[in-house]
Design a protein that fits this description.
The complex is a heterodimer of chains A (about 70) and B (about 160). Chain A is of the alpha/beta class. Chain A is about 20% helix and about 20% strand. Chain A has helices spanning about 5-15, 25-30; strands spanning about 5, 20, 40, 60. Chain B has two domains: about 1-30, no CATH class; about 45-155, CBS-domain. The radius of gyration of chain B is 20 Å and the shape is globular. The relative contact order of chain B is 0.17. In chain B, the strands form two sheets. Chain B has a four-stranded mixed β-sheet with strand order 2-3-4-5. Chain B has a two-stranded antiparallel ribbon with strand order 6-7. With about 160 residues, chain B is an alpha+beta fold. Helix content of chain B is about 35%, strand content about 20%. Chain B is built from eight helices and seven strands, in the order H-E-H-H-E-H-E-E-H-H-E-H-E-E-H. Classes of the chains: A alpha/beta (about 70), B alpha+beta (about 160). The interface of A and B includes residues 23, 42, 53 and 64 of A.
Chain lengths: ~70, ~160
């Protein structure tokens, strides 16, 4: 079950090598994203697009806010 | 949409999945760095003066006023031990009775701005509202410092 985390947790997880995934449309990612995040829009999230990620390392999904 | 994305990642075989609900809005409002096309536009976090005078609730106004003058400020921010903004002392209050506490003299719940506001946006707003200074805090209320309209105007006329 996915674990909800706050900003402090995200900073710690990033230090520990977590992968950040922005799931917003690509134009929003191009405007601005968290440092080191990759873009995988929710509508395109499948085995092939997620293939670039390491399934054994922690992964953090985020969008703009509580939407 | 991040809750659904997190669940989807789990179904795709990811073993350790987290969901950052606050997302980009929370991140940038805390003044943390972003990457991308818009990331280079100047924001308040870059021009905020972090040396603004701070006072505790129990500090006598006279003592705060002395420190403010020494630091070159005619206002001070009243914070708790965690650095959360509780009130503001303006020049009128700093020049008032030196023996009352900051808590008794301060204006409660002053207006604040986030560090991710664009300098250009804030310059217009400060002109419209005739503000010379404005406190900048994170979305959690932690004081980052104070922005000065003169700093914003100087930085936005520089190409």
């Amino acid at each position: 079950m996915p674990v909800e985390v706050n900003r402090t947790d995200v900073l710690r997880l990033m230090d520990e090598g977590a992968q950040l995934v922005e799931v917003l449309p690509p134009a929003e990612y191009d405007d601005e994203h968290l440092p080191g995040a990759v873009s995988i829009p929710l509508k395109e999230l499948d085995a092939s697009s997620a293939g670039s990620l390491d399934p054994d390392a922690p992964v953090i999904a985020y969008c703009f806010d509580y939407q | 949409m991040s809750p659904r994305a997190a669940w989807r990642l789990e179904t795709l075989g990811f073993k350790e999945v987290y969901e950052y609900r606050g997302g980009k809005a929370d991140w940038s409002a805390a003044g943390l760095p972003m990457e991308g096309k818009l990331a280079a536009a100047p924001r308040l976090g870059k021009v905020v003066r972090r040396d603004v005078t701070r006072a505790g609730l129990e500090d006598p106004v006279g003592e705060v006023a002395k420190r403010a003058t020494a630091d070159g400020w005619d206002t001070a921010l009243v914070v708790n031990r965690e650095g959360i903004l509780l009130g503001r002392l303006y020049k009128t209050q700093l020049d008032g009775d030196p023996n009352v506490t900051a808590e008794a003299a301060m204006e409660n719940g002053p207006s604040t701005f986030r560090p991710d506001v664009y300098v250009s946006q804030m310059t217009r707003l400060m002109r419209d509202k005739d503000l010379d200074t404005a406190p900048v805090t994170t979305s959690d209320g932690m004081v980052l410092g104070m922005v000065l309209r003169e700093d914003l105007e100087a930085s936005s006329t520089t190409p």
